[in-house]
Model the fold of this input.
Amino acid sequence: MDDILLLEAIERYLGGDMSTEERTYFENLRKNTPEIDQMVVEHGMFLHQMDMYATHRNLKHSLHQAHTRLLERGDINEGGELSTRGRVIQLWNKYKRVTAIAASVGGVIALFISGLALYFAPAVSGNQLQQLSNDIEAIKKNQQYQGSLINEVQSKLPAGVRFISGGSGFLIDTKGYLVTNAHVLKGNGAIVVNSKGKEFNAAILYVDTERDLALLRITDKEFIHPKSLPYAIKAGKAELGEEIFTLGYPRNEVVYGIGYLSARSGFDGDSLSYQLQMSANPGNSGAPVLNNNGEVIGILSTRQASAEGVTFAVKSRNIYAMIDELRKSDTGFAKMKLPSKSSIRGIDRKKQITKVEEAVFYVKAFSK
Amino acid sequence: MKADTNEQVLLKGLANNDSRAVETIYRENFNMVQAFILNNNGSYDDARDIFQEAMIALYEKAQSESFVLTCQIKTYVYSICRRLWLKRLQQLGRYTNQVDSLEETVPVEEDLEIHEKRNAEFAIMDRALNSLGEPCKSLLEGYYLRKMGMQELASNFGYTNADNAKNQKYKCLMRLKKLFFAQYNIGE
Done:
């Protein structure tokens, strides 16, 4: 009987049903008797479990009710005799493949004819490769983007512009020259955002669609030019099997990824790029790919849509090639010097990341 | 950057198990999930199961103190359902590549882990309660889950007085706790 009374007391104590006097007395008892203290803790936990179980059951019940109500009202359908819409969906599911095959047979014939003309061109078909730039318009739904969009409209952007695409980019010169993928810059203007979320105006200087590279320059007065860049841009070849890492902006925050170099050429033997084994997401486009020594070996650009983790990066020597071309046509680039010495060689990865992070930017392209 | 106020209100309603909020969220999201499941080898029943599971996960998230939903309810629910369904397909050996759409999702792995842990705990409680037998099960459910008074329970169950009912309840509770903790501690 004593045990029953004790348990009742514990339940009243936990439920907050005790008077102040009783409570003080009980708390003293708890303090002086470890067994009782233990019982209180254990029972409290058990009651909490019971409560959660109860709410869980209630919720399941109300979900069930909501389902039935919505079904009755016709807000949702589950096939059967309630509506014909479900059946249409099922029919569509059933014959989807047949329809798709029929449609593609027609498509293939049409494509074959036009394909003959393009046969000798090394163009890559768009659906096998997927560009890793963010289509900002398509993900407008995302609250996060919407929020930041509003902020940007207030700050750096001329009124009435629309974001078209986004990706990553990184500095290749201390004067604010920034490299990204050509396909990231779908609009006619761009701003860049650093890892702390600060925005800077930028000018698009050059877009090289053949190499899928583009050059930007941060024109913003608020931009503080770094004294030096932490990484080097590798002019030579990268080794097969080299461990690599990247920092990019698949979302509003900088994201780190690792992998290895899995082939010396890109998709379908494309000699301008490397194949990497690494997961990448839309928005990673234009991010630097670095080796353990802190040398940029490539610029992340596309991934194979049909395979998991197969990613491609434009080889870093294409940056040199692009700059050389620019020098020929514009003397303004004569003084530009790509960093050839990495200052983060042999240091801890976390420290490498902190340094590199400062030179990697979120690139947002807009159209006026 | 939180979900807009309207959604916040809905989530608050869900956290309190308010039937209007539950129904609104249900109405606005169910069809999307159903279409996804039906398009990916699922049945109407699967859609209902998966969707309700996701609603529970959303509820758990809405309840936690550190609660912030950084995306729209729609995106969150879709992400959870997608993850759950892929898992279910894999378990059934029905995995197809076609599921890999590029629709917007948010990472939900952590939330799902918590959700699964809770589900496991509920399953333990469920098993423990169901192996108690009657009248123990109903007595404890009446007292702890439906929060009925001892007096009321005594008369419902036909005990001559509340003390006898209390006595019986105590014995039942001890058995339940033993059953529960035997399983629960293995799980830890």
